[in-house]
Amino acid sequence: MRNLLFVIILLMSSLQLTFAQDKCSHFWYAQPASDWKSALPIGNGRIGGMIFGDPSTEQIVINENTIWCGPPLPPNNPKGPELINKMRNLIFNGKYEEAVIVCEKEFADGVHENARSYQPFGFLNIDFKDKGAISNYKRWLDYTKAITYVSYTQNGVTYTREAFVSKPNEVMVVRITADKPGQVSFKSKYTRPFGATTKAENNRSQYVQGQAYAENGEFVGVKFEGIINYYNEGGKIKANGTDIEINNANSVTIMIAISTDYNIHDTKNVLTHNRKKICEKQLSQAQKLGYKKLKQTHIDEYSALYNRSSFDIAFNTPVNNNPIDKRIQLAASGQIDSELLFEYYNYCRYLFISSSRKGGLPMNLQGIWNPLMLAPWRSNFHINVNIQEAYWFAEQANLSECHEPMFTLTENLIKNGKETAQVMFGTKRGSVAGHRTDAWFYAPPTFLKAHWGMSITNAAWLCLHHMEHYRYTLDKEFLKTRALPVLRETALFFVDWLVPDPRSGKLVSGPTASPENRFKVNGKVASLTMSCTYDQEIIWNTFRDFLEACKILGISNEETVEVEASMKKLSMPTIANDGRLMEWTEELEETEPGHRHISHLWGMMPGNRITQDKTPHLVDAVRKSLDYRLNHNYHAQGWSLGWVTSMLARLKEGDKSLDMMQHNYFTKAYPNMFVDAHGRPQVGDMMGVPLAMIELILQSHTDYIDLLPSLPTAWKDGKVTGLCARGAFVFDMEWKAGKLISTNIKSLKGGKCLLRYEGKVKELSTEAGKSYQVTF
Predict the structure, then answer these.
(1) Beta bridge partners of 184
(2) How much is the pTM?
């Protein structure tokens, strides 16, 4: 009887809980966007748009992710090898500052730094003729459907706008309707500051031709063409110069198609297809579907990805119906909004699906959304943390297909990096790349300052994503044909690159900088050393991954012997006298104790050499290092908070990780939840927090799959579905009062599944395609 009463009470109390997922399907605003930081993004991985939602004049910023300014590209410095030897000698003799001078004045190319920018396709301004007073205004994004909406009442008429970008049909779609006939009237103008011409065709189309280049006429790049079609129901349509004018329609559907000459497989040879015909074909196929079917096809394709996983936490709180900008403002001031974090999590999944799709470029610093002809950091691919972090959660969140553009970037960069390795770095084999690249996949380092630019393990870090994809999917064909080739190139580069430290005889990398950090020696600021911890960890990881891939594929040869020998001689990080993990081989004085990068902790996250099971002393050193950073006026950026919260999840400090997400992260968020990076909005930098949230619930980077390893106290009741673990397993879990009550595991490839929960271990022998219910 007591058990029955307990069950009844439990059921009644559970009815009072509302799961965050049930609340989190959209967010809204009570006013139009005043600027870029408030506008709402739509996209299909290739085409992107930002919707402002002004009742008087709608502004849509249109992007296509291959529209980049072009060459000249940074050259490989043929004097590089002799300068590297010169810098090494200076560093080994304690002349750090002199090595920096050689690096900045002789080794690197600062001329081409930030030269080529990602640019918008253009701007569509829809000027509505009705200018009366507005009431009942609302705009919102439904990220379960990937559609933005605007609704308002004007002069007794309720107007509605919908906008999305269809992946199946490769068109942007904007639908404008009114609840009374004959009320939709506007003039639509396409503009671009320079580099494009427009003409009206057939009284219902705008045909755009253009080419990306810098404002001074240099760096001529990608050619593009586009067609903007207007389909009116009722009323009249006509061309007015290059504008399209519509009067007294019942509704209007606008469709936009774009094609470029960019060749992702061979950037030196442009595509020669008929760009206009491609656009015409895409528009014709979309129009034949009709708006209702076109919209449903879009929803079905998108939701098939979005609905693969869910993340639900139950809170005893009422639904927060405030506009999202107000909620962000309150969260930034310290008010906890439990559901807001899950809005953010789902929004990040939406942005990821909308900006990274197979066959295209990966998301850049701005995702695919950029309004400027000269973008912040040129919207390039920063590969010393930013783009890697943007893709950290791809596999865990069951969005493996969206990881694909990252692999394409890496493979193209590795090809170009072979010349850089030989000509500029003096190795006989392998590939290397600087700390950033762009759509042309250039590899030579470009920088004005050594502390951010002299970083040589970036390409190797990219290759980790190939190996992780294998670990999550167990796709041996991918491992053989795509992962192993890039791992081989980076591993062989390091075999040739490493030199013995005369003090220890161990192999070290250098000259190199711990990303963007500096130190003082004899009162002078410098940044270059031999053997920073960041380099040594990534090199160890690269050697390990290469040897693991070879073992799985049954490969044993002279190269594996060489790599094994180098790995055994590799200098590894040590612990300082104060118990912290050393960032450099010597205990050097940091110029910024609260520096935003935590690169020296790479071996614990995203790497996995440092774990509680195998290296508890190093875990303690990582914890002390992280605490030291956080306690010294930590210079946080959006991406760095993502890294720190993920690190805390691995340190099993769930409450601290959650506290940082809730109290610190939204101080960096703009009204549209894009993240502030040195005063500029970025998208790629948003993606670290979703990974941290997942790793609070599920971790698989050790020999075990850990269930609820860092569960925050506040997440007492919850459930997740569709989260992935290494070994090709998919997990559904539910917990109540902080205790796991249900675990369902689907094995995609079969094999051993080693589970751990609260110190208890269970081993399953699984078969491919079967599901297993487990209790502890």
Answers:
(1) 249
(2) 0.95
